From TrEMBL:
Organism, as annotated: Ambrosia artemisiifolia
PANTHER family: CHITINASE, NOD FACTOR HYDROLASE PROTEIN 1
Record-stated family: Belongs to the glycosyl hydrolase 18 family. Chitinase class V subfamily.
Pfam families in the cross-refs: Glyco_hydro_18 (PF00704)
Protein name: GH18 domain-containing protein
Amino acid sequence: MELLKPSTLFLVILSLTMNSMGSTHGPNKGGYWPSWSIDFSPSSIDTTLFTHVYYAFLSPNNITFKFEINDHTAFLLKNFTTSLYKKTPPVKTMFSIGGGSFSSKTFSRMALGHDSRKSFILSTIEVARKFEFDGVDLDWEFPQTPIDMANFGHLLHEWRVAVKKEAKLTSKPQLLLSAATYYKPEVTLDDIYRMYPVESINKNLDWINAMCYDYHGSWDLSATGTLAALYDPNSNVTTSYGLQSWIKAKIHREKLVMGLPLYGRTWQLKDPTLYGIGAPAIAVGPGNEGAMPYVEVQEFNAQNNAKVVFDEPTVSYYSVAGTSWIGYDDVRSVKLKIEYARSLEIGGYFFWAIDGDQEWKISRQASETWLD
Ligand SMILES: *[C@@H]1O[C@H](CO)[C@@H](O)[C@H](O)[C@H]1NC(C)=O
Ligand SMILES: *[C@@H]1O[C@H](CO)[C@@H](O)[C@H](O)[C@H]1NC(C)=O
Ligand SMILES: *[C@@H]1O[C@H](CO)[C@@H](O)[C@H](O)[C@H]1NC(C)=O
């Protein structure tokens, strides 16, 4: 028998150690790329900072539940995957379906019956293979009823069966399956209680992206509020509560991925001298309907000589200039949140949306805070 050279031996030991630690792959570091961000091409994404990048969004036809891809979209999809595979290191590419402005009812009708689920599933696989994506992300905001939640569970099961079968048939790696979800597993909106099918998620999805943001915003203009507080002494609408609730509901920790916002939410204060979190407000502030990408928040703060406050109890930032008020995350709050997520031993984090961070200030801090 040939003796192993010391260098080979070292590698063998290293790989055995890594396997025994169960950490052959590191944290999931995701970012959504909005396909409408015209001056931010996929090729400009710094892939050293991410493991997964999501194309946002594709929508199925609301009757057939299949994707009808026009030439322009086909170009964008192809450009997205080709650009990202050329990068060093390459990242996994996912296409994300639906999103905040897509009708929840369409998903509800799709998920209701076996045939409609099947049409949808087969079409997702076809699109993924045609445009060479590594996986598919379902962004259903949000299942509305307990029946929707049950059907969501059936959908995930049938989806996994289908991608397994397809991988076997084609000898290709199985497509990855993920879903963007509410920040916590139990949802009570419009007085209807429903709970995500955690068992089906554990069994059938590779991970979920818990949207740990939009806790306050233009839907309540009476007072300023945090967009994505880690803690709140007076409320459970927080990232810590959301993540802990998923864990309590028995999600496999490595499948839980924490959302982080690369944007702010804005209000117009009633009285510029009352400017804390929860201060009286009367309207949305600057930005697009009260939302502003992080890069513009920075510009706004500089141009208006804004007062910037790091709020320790909530682990969040806000800035004030006159009656303009913006709540957002910055380097320090993101670092603390990632340390928190890491201490929970969850799967990683993701950003909505990466075009908000053009100098990679926050993404870099995040990535450096969570090395393997
Ligand atoms: C489907 O979409 C079309 C075009 O947007 C719309 O006019 C129609 O009402 C939708 N149908 C259903 C059942 O949602
Ligand atoms: C993607 O599109 C951009 C802008 O249209 C172009 O400059 C670039 O070469 C394209 N990349 C690939 C890989 O097709
Ligand atoms: C937060 O949730 C816990 C447990 O679910 C509950 O006991 C507590 O009253 C809640 N706190 C607030 C402020 O709603």
